[in-house]
Amino acid sequence: MASSDQIRLLLVEDVPQVAQYVRSLLNSQSHIKLLDVLTDGAKAISSAQQLRPDVMLVDALLQGRVKGLALVEQIQSQRLGVPVVVLTVPQNPVEPSPERGIDAVLSMPFSGYDLMNKITSVHQNYQSANSVGGSRQIAVFAPKGGVGKTTIAFNLAVAIGQRGSKTVLIDASLQFGDMRALLKVPVDAPSILDLPTDRIQESDLQDVLWRDPSGIDILLAPPRVEMAEMVTVRDVDKVLSLLRRVYEAIVLDLPAPLNDINLAFLDASDTILEIVTYDSTTIHNTIAVADAFRSIGYPAAKVRYLINRADSPGGISPDDLARALGRVPEHRVVSDGMLVVQSNNEGIPFVLANPDAAVSQDVARMATELMAVARVPAGARR
Ligand SMILES: Nc1ncnc2c1ncn2[C@@H]1O[C@H](COP(=O)(O)OP(=O)(O)OP(=O)(O)O)[C@@H](O)[C@H]1O
Ligand SMILES: [Mg+2]
User: Fold this and answer.
1) Residue 174 half-sphere exposure, CB side, CA atoms within 13 Å?
2) 241 and 192 in one domain?
3) Distances in whole angstroms, Cα of residue 314 to Cα of each of 60, 305, 310
4) Which ligand is nearest to the CA of 275?
């Protein structure tokens, strides 16, 4: 994972001597961290869901209700998203078979070098194989208020969710948390501040995320303006790296200022969806931000422009806009005052309230396009 090179290992082994041997081999190093040793295969899936290991090491000869290879099958069928190394003895040969969930085999006796080598290579292969279809983080941003960031972020997240990707929306507008008002959540609904500050696990997320009826999960902003200051860049990095493991799409509703926290959100994003409107101050700020992004080192392809209310040019021609931005905006969403305002007031996404409306179709198309965009390496700011 981006935040740490350490590989988190979960061992499923019911022979105490073998578990102790693995433990002793890993004791003298810090590259691989042994999260736990489970002796009961029947509890391994739920433990893995909680601990989110990077690699699991499973003894093929595991006894009990769920035997070793049956457990490997379960890990595969439940799509845990964890590569598995199977541990065996020469008398019980097992062939590597990624289709059956056996990513690699380690046969006894093995050395510390064999163990580390196997785990590291399985982890690397798995990460590179999954990074193409891996999680996408899209920051909805504009250097100007009131241009439709919250509206677009919410509807885009739902549209991505509708396309079958597990999606979370982060209300990164930490001071004024628009999603709370939009969704009319209770004041005591938990926020990003309710996550533990040291090691966060997936189980912590379960308690904090708002499950919206629209099918997406939402990480809300703190309930009071002054509480925004309590969120640090470190918190942001940790939350994002955990969410990346669990969700296929992360959509952020970002506020306008370019401060440290917002840059941490932008740095970690694959795509910055920058909203522009036909309005001279918005265009002016957009050009200023393009300069800032260039000096930060973001590749040009990391930013994709969206013209919101694209059918209301207000005296500025599309050509002028393209000239000012240096390129034709990649996406456009039309205006629909009636539907958008009414849906926002009811706290429901317009893409579900009226999927056939032109504005909904525009967002749906954008959802497909954004998820298909090849991942651009995150900016090299830090
Ligand atoms: N495509 C659209 N058609 C019609 N109305 C829209 C459209 N997009 C946004 N709006 C309206 O514009 C207003 C501002 O939208 P929104 O609150 O999403 O903007 P914002 O950029 O998040 O604002 P803030 O900077 O305050 O967070 C809302 O009333 C919303 O209903
Ligand atoms: Mg907003």
Assistant:
1) 18
2) yes
3) 68, 18, 10
4) 1
Structural domain including 259 reads 136-372
d(CA 328, CA 239): 34
| Last-in-domain residue among 115, 131, 147 | 131
Atom of ligand 1 nearest to the CA of 152: 18
Which CATH number is 200's domain given? 3.40.50.300
The residue whose CA is least distant from atom 1 of ligand 1 is: 335
Contacts of 180 (CB under 8 A, 6+ apart): 171, 189, 220, 221, 223
With 90 as the cut, is the pLDDT of residue 109 above it? yes
The answer to whether residue 93 is domain-embedded is yes
For a pocket test of ligand 1, which of 340, 343, 345 has the largest count of ligand atoms closer than 8 A to its C-beta? 340
**CATH code, 13:** 3.40.50.2300
Residue 168 domain flag: yes
Query: Looking at ligand 1, which atom is closest to the CA of residue 275?
Result: 21
Domain boundary among 111, 131, 151: 131
Q: Whose C-alpha lies nearest to ligand 1, atom 25?
A: 145
Among the atoms of ligand 1, which is closest to the Cα of residue 339?
4
Do the domain assignments include residue 204? yes
300 belongs to a structural domain? yes
Total domains in the chain come to 2
SS3 55: strand
Say which residues have a Cβ less than 8 Å from residue 148's Cβ, sequence separation at least 6: 142, 275, 277, 308, 309, 333
**pTM, two decimal places:** 0.69
How many beta carbons lie within 10 A of that of residue 379, not counting itself? 19
Q: pLDDT by residue (tens digit) across 260-313?
A: 999 999 999 999 999 999 988 888 999 999 999 999 889 889 999 999 999 988
